[in-house]
Amino acid sequence: MVINTNMAAITSANNLDQSTNLLNESLARLSSGSKIVNPSDNPAGLAESISLGAQINQTAAANANVSNAVSFLQTQDGYLQQVGSALDQMSTLAVESQDVTKTNTERADYQQEFNTLAGYITDTATKDFNGVSLFDGSTLAVTTDAEGALFQMTGVNLGAAAYTAATAADVSTTTGAVAALTAVTSAITQLATDRATIGANEERLTYTGDELGVLQDNLTAANSQLTDVDVATESTNYAKYQILVQSGVSMLAQANQNPQTVLKLLS
Question: What three-state secondary structure class fits 242?
Answer without folding.
Answer: helix
